[in-house]
Design brief:
The protein is an alpha+beta fold. It is built from 17 helices and 23 strands. The chain starts with 11 loop residues before the first strand and ends in a 7-residue tail after the last helix.
């Protein structure tokens, strides 16, 4: 049977400064899409909004028609920058409504997305980086040092960026000596528009970033002309970069303001194709390129196309092993049913089930005693009167909630995702995880945070983390742990996401940058990097009343943010930051990542096979 042909490369439209002329832009896009399309997306650089001052409460230019639904954006459109007198007011509202990171754009209206700040995201397989803003003193329309630092951190990662979007057209040719032949480092200057040769608007920071990132395509605007330069060879890299500058929408000189490209994603190309040098390739046009970063000869492989993602599971201890049938099945005792049926290694006792319904402690039923002492909130007697007397009031008990995704007796439990069950904790693969081995470490009891768990389960948590660390290390990866706790938290889950060892050193930097971008700081709990000591410090300081977010880095350092009483914190912050680090922005939202139950079962079986030698519950 013949192999299926590779998917067609995405088809992308590029546009220059719109200056608020959205009706004219989208009319042209619609026409091009109908005649030579379909196209997957439109990327707009330069000044998107009108430079004119509008009425106080009205959206700028033609924007109101799209914002209020009188007109439709024809294809997914992404724009950079918040330029124009009325743009900041409009975009600040959109930013306020957005939660957390949005590397792939904040939605303004259907099919229209604002690329804020700087980031790297995946667009139909293409790796797209952007710097949204121009050089200035700060404020609307200007990029920040954090935006630049974030891109520099991304430039240090392996892999090739397909497209780099910036506001200004980089003025590089004038910086080089023009020889008598009319060639600059091999580039023909005879047909270069004079606007391109003017030094006004030159941004040395963008020039440095381009030499560091080494994109395959650099797209920019602001000069009012169309200019497609010959491809040039990057310093310390074998692939070439193509520069495309675009004119303003509706310019009187009829300069080209819309351009189509269809690049094959670098992540799917062979090494030979990546390194192919066109016959008209020139040397780099930059006089003093920034420090070179070693680039791998082979392009980064795409992330496994396994649609998975996030949380929701429970089940209890069905540990495979020797048992004489005297121990109770937690699942049956607490819920009245067990998915293993007659194959269960534990006892299904109806009388024990009735006692459990009267809030008798399961450990007392199973062993005849309870090791939790006064901390236990359930009854330790088989008589109904004593059970009522001994049990704590409902307001004091930690209930096992029937609607909780993580409680072991809940009917919502997805027990097929569980990979290991201990006495105080169990591990499950995330439902639709960020990466295939995204693990949740979950308390068996209904606790709102792992920080407040008793000492005995805390010791078991350390054993699970040690086991996961060894398992991931065998695959050339390191674990990043994070937990978010809010006043609405019901059942704790500590998330463990493995990252390649090559990216482990960048985790701290990207979390600090992400926090700063959202307006808060992460403090270091344990400067010495002792993760166990860090958790003990956290446990001793936490008052159980405040919200918090903490992340444990691969080197053991804990970064912490304590939430204010009215602070709104993005629930997916940890996942979104790691999605950016791993260039998986399209997987930042767990709802975009789903598998069938059969696929989930296979994923769990595969994980168990590799984890078995490290599993502390075995």
């Amino acid at each position: 049977m013949a192999a299926a042909p590779p998917p067609a490369p995405p088809r992308i439209l590029l546009a220059g400064d719109a200056h608020g002329r959205l009706h004219q832009l989208f009319k042209r896009v619609k026409s091009v899409n109908q005649s030579t399309g379909p196209f997957n997306a439109l990327l707009c650089v330069g000044q998107f909004f009108s430079p004119e001052v509008g009425e106080e409460d009205s959206p700028p230019g033609d924007f109101a028609d799209y914002l209020e639904g009188r007109a439709a954006v024809p294809i997914p459109t992404y724009f950079t920058g918040d330029y124009g007198p009325t743009a900041p007011r409009l975009l600040s509202k959109a930013a306020a409504d957005a939660r957390g990171f949005a590397p792939g754009g904040i939605q303004i209206c259907p099919n229209l997305f604002w690329l804020r700040g700087s980031a790297l995201f995946n667009l139909h397989g293409l790796s797209v980086a952007y710097l949204s803003g121009k050089r200035g003193l700060g404020g609307p329309g200007c990029y920040s040092q954090d935006d630049v630092d974030a891109l520099r951190a991304l430039a240090e990662e392996p892999g090739i960026v397909d497209l780099f979007l910036t506001y200004p057209l980089v003025h590089f040719i004038i910086l080089l000596n023009i020889y008598e032949s009319g060639v600059v480092n091999g580039a023909d200057t005879s047909k270069v528009p004079p606007q391109v040769l003017e030094p006004q608007g030159y941004d040395p920071v963008v020039a440095e970033l381009v030499t560091e990132i080494k994109p395959r395509y650099h797209i920019a605007g602001t000069k009012g002309v169309f200019y497609s330069r010959e491809p040039y060879v990057n310093d310390s890299s074998l692939h070439v970069t193509r520069f495309i500058g675009l004119a303003n929408v509706g310019n009187k000189e009829k300069q080209k303001f819309i351009h189509a490209i269809s690049p094959t994603p670098a992540s799917t190309m062979s090494s030979a194709d990546i390194h192919a040098r066109p016959p008209n390739a020139t040397l780099s046009p930059y006089v003093a390129p920034a420090k070179s970063v070693p680039v791998e000869d082979t392009p980064k492989r795409p992330a496994e196309n396994t649609d998975l993602q996030y949380w929701r599971y429970d089940v209890k201890r069905q540990r495979q092993g020797q048992n004489d049938g005297s121990l109770l099945c937690f699942k049956f005792t607490s819920s009245g049913s067990c998915p293993r049926g007659s194959n269960c290694n534990f006892k299904h006792d109806e009388e024990a089930r009735e006692h459990c319904q009267r809030n008798v402690c399961f450990e007392f039923l199973n062993k005849g005693k309870c090791g939790k002492g006064p901390e236990c909130r359930f009854a330790h007697s088989l008589t109904e009167e004593a059970a009522v007397r001994d049990a704590k009031p409902r307001s004091d008990r930690r209930p096992v909630e029937s609607s909780c995704w993580f409680c072991l007796s809940s009917p919502d439990v997805e027990s097929h995702l569980v990979i290991s069950i201990g006495d105080g904790y169990y591990c499950a693969l995330a439902k639709g995880p960020l990466v295939p081995e995204h693990v949740l470490v979950i308390p068996v009891e209904h606790f709102p945070t792992t920080i407040t768990m008793p000492a005995e389960p805390e010791a078991e948590l350390r054993r699970y983390k040690n086991a996961l660390g060894k398992y991931f290390e065998k695959q050339g990866k390191a674990a990043v742990y994070f937990e978010w706790v809010s006043q609405q938290s019901r059942h704790a889950n500590l998330q463990a996401v493995p990252v390649p060892l090559s990216k482990a050193a960048s985790v701290e930097k990207i979390f600090h940058l992400a926090a700063k971008r959202l307006g808060f700081e992460l403090s270091v709990v344990n400067p010495d990097g002792d993760a166990n000591q860090g958790r003990e410090l956290l446990r001793s300081q936490y008052d159980s009343k405040s919200g918090l977010f903490y992340v444990e880095l691969p080197d053991g350092t804990l970064l912490l943010h304590m939430l204010g009483s009215r602070e709104k914190f993005p629930a997916q912050f940890g996942r979104e930051v790691l999605a950016g680090l791993l260039s998986m922005a399209d997987r930042a939202d767990w709802r975009n990542c789903k598998l069938s139950k059969e696929e989930e079962i296979k994923m769990v079986d595969d994980f168990k096979q590799g984890f078995r030698e490290f599993d502390p519950a075995e």
